[in-house]
Fold:
Amino acid sequence: MIWALILLFAVYFICMMALVFGFQKVSLFSSETKHPETCFSVIIPFRNEAENLPNLLKTIAELNYPSELFEIIFVNDASEDNSEAIITSAIEKSKFSIKVIENKRISNSPKKDAITEAIKNSNFQWIVTTDADCELPKNWLNVFDSYIQQNDCAMVCGPVIYKSKGNGLENFQQLDGLSLQAVTIGSFGLNNPLLSNGANLAYKKEDFLKVNGFLGNDHIASGDDIFLLEKMKKAFREQVQFLKSKEAIVFTKPKQTVKNVINQRIRWASKTSKQKNTTSLLLGILVFLVNISILIIPFFMVFHSEYILLYTSFLFFKIITDYIIVRQAALFFGEEILLWKFLWQPFVYAIIVLAVVFGSFRGNYSWKGRSFEKQ
Structure:
């Protein structure tokens, strides 16, 4: 057992350090002052987002980009609150194009249907997606434009971070989000993109149509970002890139209850198991085994006390490894992660992983007030 743990943690360390190396390989993009050229259709699906829309609309109104070069398309996915009324009010005051269309359900994935319907109604070549619970930086479209002008792109993935007010649950989500961003950016640096985030994602309409959009995975409710990344990467390998810029960081709202956090991760797990990327699946299995080991090791320490120092070293090794990769991402996002505050993170994460695995056995999850069966 000890040798198995040594091998497991050694492989985990090597993989994490490879991602650290990949993260550093992705150059920080410094946008130059250029005359804006790119036209964007910004797509935002929403369902019962009355609480979040005012913040989003405020940041949209503050976007520093020529009004004639972008449009905002909100897609109403059967909202039951006054979300649409809030947007309609904003339209009356807007100096640029905002419109609301209704979602047309044709599959088991409301969000994919919403994006597809919006693309049909879009006027511009570049599609940018974000979520209704996000806040956008003022130079968001400027940075995308500058990057697109300087690079040959089919898809550009952008950075996303959770906002945290300092409480334990929000801090956990921010740290977890930073670890996912570390994996995302690191995998781009290793020329094998594994993750993307639909809250900050841009791609050419013509290329979306060339890969047949979400066809083939629209039976899975979530995963509009991951599955499209896989298709784009297969069709346009060198043209799928990451925009590593502080000016492009989109902020998203954390969940407010433990139940919602676990349910969200069950939804994420439902799409991860359907990915065709072998590296992503193997990395997921590795992370799962290491986290389960973290929960089992304390029992080994009780029943095999003669090895207590060795088992303690495994725990310390995991904490330091995770801290290295999360801290690197935190530095990019301008967040300070203190080691002593990070000590509890690996243990909480391991418990969440176990809860998600058992939750996945139920075969279903809820999202935006709807229930979905795991495919």
